[in-house]
Amino acid sequence: MLRFTFAILCFVTLCTSAVSTAQAQARLLLVGKAEIEAAISSIDDQGQWTIETSEGTQIVTTEDVVRYGQMKSATKDHIAILDDGSQLVIYESVIEKRKIKGYSELWDEVEFSLRKTRGLILQIPLQPVDRRRLIDQVSRYEESKDQVLLVNGDRLSGLISRLSVKEPDAKETLQIRTTAGSVEVEASRVAAIMFAPSINTTESKSALHWLGLRDGSLLRCRDFQWQNQTLTVTLSDGTILKSPPGISLQRELSLFQPSSSKVQFLSDLSALGYKHIPFLQLKWDYRLDRNVQQGDLTVDGKSYFKGLGTHATSRLAYRVPAGAVRFAAALGIDDNTSGQGSVIFRIYTASSDGKWTVAFQSPTIRGGAPLVPVSIELKDVKGIALVVDHADGADILDHANWIEARFETK
User: Fold this and answer.
1) C-beta pairs of 281-284 under 8 Å, 24+ apart in sequence
2) Model confidence at 9, in pLDDT bands (50, 70, 90)?
3) Phi, psi (deg, nearest 5) at residue 221
């Protein structure tokens, strides 16, 4: 009986260990290689990664990494949008003396000057497309005055002076100074607050990475280190965020999208040309790092930070940059079609004499199917064209995504 009990305990321990190991890993995509499962042991200040895979311990550099993990959408109120596009989920946020203060699950207390903040979303929409559109609207705000966007669609312009809990009714209120005087609005009526950009805002000259956290925060940073169970992030403006020691990186980190000289995403380049031929009359433009409905690029339940959103039938052409040796991407129908839509992806390449040839043609890819990876060597290739044709059922819901479409160098 004791032996039997001991055997059961050993079996449970092994199973628990296996599950724990699996949970500690995430998808890692390296330059020139297929995705693998990996766990990060450390990342030093020189950008050297120590990772654990099924093949044992490996050393890679940030320059080798295309992407680690998956993007998560922020679904919690409130979200502070910084000037550089960073999105930080915070709690109990207040605005006073032209500063925004709050608490973060990972960073504890945080504080930013409104001069470095583009806006604050108080009520995040439930629908993913509406959520992404509101975040983009706040991120791109360029008006000369602060603006309050109410839930009913109305707007107030002026100068935001305070967001706080007002006694004795304990209701969170927002105060804005308008041309008609000071106005107080219950925070429950406010969808978002947008701040006039500072004329002193400057873009960092250093390479900037994107760091995603499990609460949906997305940070643009100069530097990212994981040592001694402490996560240290230097934001684009030099602000340093340091976690308390003892956190689980695999639990807190959802995405790392580095800036690498070995990777040029097509969504960061200017296209040579674009053409869409509608089956009937509805025309679709292509989108950068968004699907054609301007939502997150999502395929098979996973969201991606980089890529192109297109629609059948379309053709998008790019010049191949000097030094590029490979084009790579993953192809699929966006999840916003609810499993519908069907397309055929084609890739054409142009040689130095200007002749175009078919370098790749996919089978029919339908909504709900997993991504199809593609990699094409670019020796003597000067141009590349990404083509999407409709397959079954005309072009209905043919929302085609070129996930992480990129040129790679050695």
Assistant:
1) 284/310, 284/311, 284/314
2) very low
3) -135, 155
3-state SS assignment for residue 232: strand
Residues 315 and 274: beta-carbon distance below 8 Å: yes
* CB neighbour class for 273 (10 Å; exposed up to 12, middle 13-18, buried from 19): exposed
Residue 335 has φ and ψ, to the nearest 5°, of: -65, -15
From the number of C-beta atoms within 10 Å of its C-beta (0-12, 13-18, 19+), residue 298 rates as buried
Residues 116-174 pLDDT 10s: 899 999 999 988 899 999 999 999 999 999 999 999 999 999 999 899 865 555 688 99
- Per residue in 396-405, pLDDT tens? 999 999 999 9
3-state secondary structure of 306: coil
Tell me the domains of the chain and their CATH numbers. 79-194 (no CATH), 264-408 (2.60.120.1060)
Helix (H) or strand (E) holding 36: strand 36-43
Interatomic CA distance for residues 334 and 297, integer angstroms: 7
Question: DSSP of 98-139, one letter per residue?
Answer: TEEEEEETTTEEEEEEGGGEEEEESS--SSHHHHHHHHHHHH
Q: Give dist(CA 176, CA 178) in Å, integer.
A: 6
Burial class (CB in 10 A: 0-12, 13-18, 19+), 46: exposed
